[in-house]
Amino acid sequence: MGAGASAAAQSFDFAAKSPEEIAAEAAKSPLGHDLTKAAEHEAYMKVANKLYKLDMEKLKAIQKIVSEVQVDSFKYPVPFHIALNNAISKKTFELLPAIHCTCVFALYKEFNRILPKGDEKKPEVCDPNGEDFIRMKHKQMSWLFENKADSSWTLLGVDDGCDGLDKKSGEQLKPSADLMEDIVKAEGYTNVNVHRLKQCILDGTCEKAGLDVAKLKSEKWKDDDKLVASSQKAGAILLGLYLANEEVSKFPDKKHIIVYTDSDLSTDLALSGLNFDTIINGKVEASVCQRFGEPFAVNCGKLLTEEEGGGIAAGMPLASRIHLTLRHKLRSNLLPPLIKIIDTNCGHKALTPETAVGTVSMVKDYKGSFDIDWLMCVGIVAKKNGKEPIGTTPIPWVNSVGESNFWAAPGGGAEESEEEKKKKACESWFKIFGTMTDMHGWHAEELDKIGLLTDECKGYVEWVKGMDLNGYVKLTDGILKKLGDKEVNMPAEEIMGLSLEEMKAFTAAEKKD
User: Fold this and answer.
1) Is 6:28 a contact under the CB 8 Å cutoff?
2) Contact between 52 and 147 (Cβ < 8 Å)
3) Fewest 10 Å CB contacts: which of 28, 190, 197, 244?
4) CA dist 410 to 123, 129, 324, 419, 421, Å?
C-alpha cells in the first residue's frame, strides 16, 4: 500500500470485499514504508479514507487477520497497518465526548528531520533524512479532528537545548525552535506553539513548574547561550507537560488530554483517537502505546534492502523478542507500577493533565532512562490520587532510520569469537538493569506507601543487584536452551512463567561446552 501500489489500492472496492479478501489484497503490496517520503503518506491516507467508510465490525475483522498475532503482522505492508488503524482511530474518536488535545514533543537537535526531504543536504532547506514532521503532524491531527466540530487540538514543541551545532557535520545551524517558528509562520498555523527550555529556566517558569533547575544547570551551563546540556528530551517534555496543563482553563467544557510523542513520524498522530478511547472508556489516567507484546501492536523495525523494495517492514528478530520479554519480566518486579507496560520506550503516550502535572517535580532521570522513571511517577501519582494509573494501547510504529541511534553500527570486528559477539550483544540489554535498581531505590518509599513493595519485589531487587554480565549471559543461555527451536511471540509465555528460583538457577549454573 505504498506509493508504488497506491493506484491498485485506490481502485480496490473495499466495500464489496470480505475482510479476508481485503487482507489478501493488502498482502500483495510492497512491505516497506519510508517516513521521509510524503507521497507514501498521501497514498496510505487515501487507503485510510476508503477504510474509514467501512463499519467498525468489518475493520476489526480485518485487524484481527493482519495483526492479532505478532508473527502474522510481519506478512502485511506497513502502510496498510497504519491506514487500517488510522481509520479505526478516527471512527472511535467520533463517538467520544468533546476533547481538547495538546500534543507535546521535544526538538532536541532536530536540524534535519524537521526539514522536507531532499536528495542533497541543504541546511535549513531540505535534507535526505527530512520528514517535514511539523507539517505532517499538523496534517495528521487535522485529519483526525476534521469531523469532530466539538473538539480541538494544539501542537506544542519545546526546544530543550539546541546549540545550533549539527551532530554529524559540525556546522553551525539555525536552532530547532527557530526552524519550527519559520514553518509556523510560513504555513500560518494558529494552533502551533514553540517554547525554549533555556528561556524558561532563566525566566523562572521551570522553577514554578517544579523542574530540578539545579540539575538542568549542572552541565556546561552558560546564561548567554541556548544549550541545556543536562537535558536530552526530559527537560523539554516535563516543561511541555506543565505548559500543556496551563491550557486546561481555555477549554472548560472539554475533556483535556495531553499526548506526548516523539518529534519524528514514527507514530502517525491520527492514531491518537485510540489513546483517547483507552483513557475515557478504559477509565485510566494514562494510555501507553505498545509496538509489541499484545494483539494488534505492530513493530516495524526491519530495514529492507533496495532489492526488497527499501523502507521499513514489520518485524522483530527472535533474539530481540527474548531479550525484551526478559526485560519486561524483570522490570515488572523491580518497578511494579509498570507491570502492565511491555514497551516503556514507545515514543507515544497520552494522559490527563492532572496526573501529568503531578509528575513534573518527581522525575530524577533527565537522560537516557527518562521514560521509565517518568512512567513510574505516573503510576505513583495516579495511585496516590485514588485513580487507575495506566492502560495500554496497541499501535503500528515505524523506526525512523536516518537520525536514530538505534541503527548505529555495533562495534567489534571479524576477529571476535562467537562467544565475544554474544557477550557484547547481551551487554547492551543488561546495562539497563542497574538503572532500574537505582530507580527502585528512588521511589521505594512511595512504593511502600501504596502497597507495591512486596517481599517478592524485594527478592528480585536483591537478585538483580547482585547479577553481573556473565550472570545475564547464563540466564539468556538457559532460556534459549529451554525454548529450543520454538518460534515465540513477544512477550514469550515461557519466560514470563519462570519463577525467581528458576531464574536464579540459570544464573548460578556452570557453563558447559
Assistant:
1) no
2) no
3) 190
4) 28, 21, 19, 15, 10
More confident residue, 10 or 419: 419
Tell me the three cell numbers of residue 297. 501492536
Q: How far apart are CA 104 and CA 480, in angstroms?
A: 40
- Burial class of residue 97 (count of CB atoms within 10 Å of its CB; 0-12, 13-18, 19+): exposed
Question: How many whole angstroms separate alpha carbon 301 and alpha carbon 283?
Answer: 31
399 HSE (CA, 13 A, CB side): 21
Closest CA to 326 of 488, 466, 451, 513: 488
Residue 153 C-alpha from the chain's centroid = 20
Which residues have C-beta within 8 Å of that of residue 70, sequence separation ≥ 6? 292, 297, 299, 316, 321, 489, 490
| 80 close to 47: Cβ distance less than 8 angstroms | yes
Distances (CA, A) of 370 to 147, 360, 363, 365, 439: 36, 12, 8, 5, 10
CATH T-level fold of 99-289+345-390: Spore Coat Polysaccharide Biosynthesis Protein SpsA; Chain A (3.90.550)
Question: Which residues, including other chains, have CB under 8 Å from residue 255's CB and lie 6 or more apart?
Answer: 96, 97, 98, 99, 100, 280
In 3D space, the residue among 374, 100, 397 whose CA is nearest the CA of residue 258 turns out to be: 100
User: By the 8 A CB rule, do 304 and 312 touch?
Assistant: yes
Phi, psi angles (nearest 5°) of residue 452:
-105, 0
Percent of the chain with pLDDT over 70: 93
Torsion of CA 52, 57, 60, 65, to 10 degrees: -110
DSSP 3-state assignment of 348?
strand
SS3 content of the chain, % helix, strand, coil (to 5): 50, 10, 40
Report the DSSP pairing between strands 152-159 and 99-106: parallel
The Cα 225–Cα 183 span in angstroms is 23
Please identify which residue in the block is written with the cell numbers 527518562.
370
Domain(s) of CATH 3.90.550: residues in the chain? 99-289+345-390
Q: Dihedral of CA 374/407/31/135: which sign?
A: positive
Cβ pair 210, 361 in contact under 8 A: yes
H/E element holding 324? Answer: helix 318-334
pLDDT one-digit tens code per residue, 424-476: 889 988 999 999 999 999 999 999 998 988 999 999 999 999 999 999 999 99
By DSSP bridging, strand 255-261 and strand 286-290 are unpaired
With H, G, I as helix, E, B as strand and everything else as coil, classify residue 164.
Answer: coil
Query: Which of 405 and 397 is assigned the larger pLDDT?
Result: 397
CB atoms closer than 10 angstroms to residue 53: 10
Q: What is the mean pLDDT of the chain?
A: 91
Tell me if the bond preceding 394 is cis, omega within 30° of 0.
no
Report which residue type is found at 353. Answer: P
